[in-house]
Design brief:
Chain A is mainly alpha-helical and 149 residues long. Helices cover 79% and strands 0% of the residues of chain A. Chain B is mostly helical and 164 residues long. The longest helix of chain B is centred in the last third of the chain and has 29 residues, at 135-163. In chain B, 38% of the residues are buried. The chains are: A mainly alpha (149), B mainly alpha (164). At the A-B interface, α1, α4 and α5 of A face α1, α2, α4, α5 and α7 of B.
Chain lengths: 149, 164
């Protein structure tokens, strides 16, 4: 099958124009164009049958899903801002508590300096873990993708 | 884009887009997902606010084409099933089955290009832009797809007539 420069035209020409004598003569002598017309006819018939079997879809349903998805995204952004604020407040509180503990330990003068360093390191790690855990929990209030939107 | 414009676009093209995606993927469920995602992207695309319906239609089919490509990259091993997810056709529709089997013998991009040019009526230039090909390569692809489709279709019809 050789290519023909009118194939693209044949692929989009309507039925009425293909029935004109000029096109009829051309189609009788051009295998490429006649195949194009045959394929188009077969595929368009197939498309009609397919569209008759297509699952129902409603624009209103899609709009509703779109609004739901957009509000989820906005909520996630707001939740992230709250998480940042919470972590900041929690960090400040933890710093104050640690400073208080540090001062109390220094004032008590109990135990060696190695023990004090170990206790402070432990408290720092504990406070840091709590802050990170709280931040993580607040920053991820929803699953990333809860099924189909 | 207003809700009314969206509803109009959806009513005009949802089913046609589904048919295109279904023919390209061979999977009704994936076709539904892709159509839904394509319309969602139309809603989120701000640049579609003051454009013609033709432009929106092109955007819709381009998004669907890209989603089909992404899906076939992720699920390359899943074979094309020409009737997956659809009800069994009534008896006496041999031509439809022949067309579907002939399409099943093509690659996904061949099916897409053939469908877009022969059913949707896009020009080669438009399809090339949508699929990310050069116009010459696209013309060659469509030409090859047509040859293979006709060969498969004629072969099936001749074997059917011999068996009768």
């Amino acid at each position: 099958m050789n290519d023909c420069e009118r194939e693209a035209e044949a692929a989009i020409a309507d039925v009425a124009s293909l029935a004109t004598p000029a096109w009829s003569r051309h189609l009788a002598g051009c295998e490429a164009c006649s195949h194009t017309v045959l394929i188009r006819s077969l595929l368009q018939t197939n498309a009609k049958e397919l569209t008759a079997n297509a699952p129902p879809s409603s624009a209103e349903g899609l709009l509703w899903q779109f609004r739901l998805r957009r509000s989820r995204e906005r909520y996630r952004q707001v939740a992230l801002m709250f998480a940042i604020a919470n972590v900041s407040v929690a960090s400040a509180a933890a710093a104050l508590i640690l400073a208080g503990l540090w001062v109390a330990l220094l004032d008590s003068r109990v135990g060696s300096s190695d023990e004090m360093v170990a206790v402070i390191a432990f408290l720092t790690l504990l406070a840091f873990s709590i802050v990170v855990a709280a931040g993580w929990t607040v920053a991820n209030p929803l699953p990333r993708r809860a099924g189909r939107y | 884009m207003t809700d009314a414009e969206f509803c109009e676009l959806h009513d005009a093209y949802a089913v046609r887009l589904w048919a295109y995606v279904f023919r390209a993927t061979g999977d009704a469920s994936s076709a539904e997902d892709i159509v839904q995602e394509a319309f969602y992207r139309v809603l989120t695309a701000r640049r579609l606010n003051n454009v013609s319906e033709q432009h929106r239609r092109r955007y819709l089919f381009t998004v669907a084409t890209n989603l089909i490509r992404r899906r076939s990259r992720l699920r390359a091993e899943i074979p094309y099933d020409d009737a997956a997810g659809l009800e069994q056709p009534p008896s006496g529709v041999d031509q439809r089955l022949d067309v579907e089997r002939a399409l099943g013998g093509l690659t996904a991009v061949e099916r897409q290009s053939l469908w877009l040019s022969h059913v949707e009526g896009w020009t080669h230039r438009e399809i090339a832009a949508m699929m990310g090909y050069r116009e010459g390569s696209l013309r060659h692809l469509i030409s090859r797809a047509k040859r293979r489709f006709i060969a498969a279709f004629v072969e099936r019809n001749s074997s059917d007539s011999e068996s009768q």
